[in-house]
Design a protein that fits this description.
The chain has about 450 residues and is mainly α. It folds into three domains: about 100 residues, Orthogonal Bundle (Fumarase C, Chain B, domain 1), CATH 1.10.275.10; about 170 residues, Up-down Bundle (Fumarase C, Chain A, domain 2); about 80 residues, Fumarase/aspartase (C-terminal domain) (Ribonucleotide Reductase Protein R1, domain 1, Orthogonal Bundle). About 60% of the residues lie in helices and about 5% in strands. It is built from 19 helices and six strands. It has a two-stranded antiparallel sheet with strand order 1-2. A two-stranded parallel sheet has the order 3-4. Strand 1 and strand 2 form a beta hairpin. The protein is elongated. Bound molecules: arginine.
Length: about 450
């Protein structure tokens, strides 16, 4: 049986069930590259500060570098009886370099070690996620620019409301992702604080240099309170919260792709590479990538809830419950990265059906508001205009026609203020162009918004 890190005090070995319950290496082994980086910085500092011999520090660093290579080439067989990634790497080090390896854990506890590993890990994941968010934003801008002329119905209550540019619709998602990017960037500063040196909870009597380790590992600041540092998991909760918001945005978009690719809408055809067929119905082409993203969103929310619940009521400082923080974070991070990559790859493979979108604008009386506004322009009070247009719509529904298909005489029956220029007012292009405020759907505004957006994401 392998000797435990804490074996000295114990007469009996743990029950097999206790080992199964307590091990985390089956999921925290993925932290090995970050754990080793932090240990190398720690060992270097121990040597510089004269806490261990310089030669021993050198041997430790060399040994750890070799283990890092073995990790990346997949050579390591992780041992569950050694509990976690820290226990495994220390045992590998001692096996490699002998007694010098036993000095690595001087002035350190697994409590500040795991807190450091998780901060290094989530800092890197945050950078990757920010990059993926930008990739998807670039894909959205390209799609918007390619479809500047495409007009579609804008919806409220999923009922046709007013016509918009497809580019305007797509740009809404760009804005959501931009806030996601900002959220992760701001979170990065709160992640980037070094807990190492807090030791178990109260600090260490050894003359360590926390500043040197922080500098070595690229941390912006040192944690100011050792008790907080070993037990704080706020940043993981924020990470899962930011991930949940990304997923929520992708899930709304997924829902639209599901609807739009249904023949009932026929607005898009998603490329074969991101759809699947049915094992029984030969005609089917299902939007599985969108559905799976929508489905996975719930599980990422669950990761956030798991962490909030884990932390609720935990007394200071480290409690073993905290070992359970890893899997939700890993799952949320993996899922958000996968789904962002899928969307960035799927978007260029999605064909927008201009004709179907345009035809859909002819249904649903989307020019009704503008007709009422037209009457307001002819000095009809808005309430009255609203009522008159309501009557016109009812008339159209009975005759199975649309407002702009009525003749001037027919329109005049409802109100004498209607004149020949009404047809210009009801024209789709006019409808769009008149919404010419900053942030609205007029082609001029959308073009400017896309230009500004491109500058914004190129700067960062
Ligand atoms: N595997 C542990 C975790 O993830 C590392 C810290 C263990 N600390 C302790 N006092 N048992 O939380």
């Amino acid at each position: 049986m392998t000797k435990k890190l804490w074996g000295g005090r114990f007469e009996d070995s743990p029950h097999a069930l206790m080992e199964t319950l307590g091990e985390s290496v089956s999921f925290d082994a993925r932290l090995a590259p970050w754990d080793i980086r932090a240990s190398i910085a720690h060992a270097r500092m121990l040597g510089v500060c004269g806490i261990i011999d310089k030669e021993d520090a050198g041997r430790i660093i060399e040994g750890l570098e070799q283990i890092a290579q073995d990790v990346s080439s997949g050579k390591i067989v992780w041992d569950k009886t050694l509990e976690d990634v820290h226990g495994n790497i220390e045992a590998l080090l001692v096996a490699k370099i002998g007694d010098a390896g036993k000095k690595l854990h001087t002035a350190r506890s697994r409590n500040d070690q795991i807190a450091t590993d998780m901060r290094l890990y989530t800092r890197d994941q945050t950078d990757t996620i920010c990059g993926l968010l930008r990739d998807l934003q670039h894909a959205l801008l390209a799609a918007a620019e390619r479809h500047m002329e495409v007009i579609m119905p804008g919806y409220t209550h999923l009922q046709p409301a007013q016509p918009v540019l497809l580019a305007h619709h797509l740009f809404a998602y760009f804005e959501m992702l931009d806030r996601d990017f900002e959220r992760f960037s701001q979170l990065r500063h709160r992640i980037n604080v070094m807990p190492l040196g807090s030791a178990a909870l109260a600090g260490t009597p050894h003359p360590i240099s926390r500043e040197q380790v922080a500098h070595d590992l690229g941390f912006e600041a040192l944690s100011a309170n050792s008790m907080d540092a070993v037990s704080d998991r706020d940043y993981l909760i924020e990470f899962c919260s930011a991930a949940s918001l990304v997923m929520m945005h992708l899930s709304r978009w997924s829902e639209e792709l599901v609807l739009w690719s249904s023949p009932a809408f026929g607005f898009v055809e998603i490329g074969d590479a991101f759809t699947t067929g049915s094992s029984i119905m030969p005609q089917k082409k299902n939007p599985d990538a969108a559905e799976l993203t929508r489905g996975k969103t719930g599980r990422v929310y669950a990761d956030l809830l798991a962490l909030l619940t884990l932390m609720k009521g935990l007394p200071l400082t480290y409690n073993r419950d905290l070992q359970e923080d890893k899997e939700p974070v890993f799952h949320a991070s993996d899922t958000v990265q996968l789904c962002l990559a899928v969307f960035a790859a799927m978007l260029p493979e999605t064909v927008f059906n201009r004709e179907a979108m345009l035809q859909a604008t002819a249904r649903g009386f989307m020019n009704a508001t503008d007709l009422a506004d037209y009457l307001v322009g002819k000095a009809v009070p808005f309430r009255k205009a609203h009522e008159v247009v309501g009557e016109m719509v009812r008339y159209c529904i009975k005759g199975n026609t649309s407002l702009d298909a009525l003749s001037l005489q027919e329109l005049k029956q409802f109100h004498p203020a209607v004149e020949e220029d009404v047809f210009h007012a009801l024209d789709l292009q006019t409808l769009l162009e008149r919404r010419n405020q900053c942030g609205a759907t007029a082609p001029k505004q959308v073009r400017e918004a896309l230009l500004a957006a491109r500058k914004r994401i190129q700067k960062a």
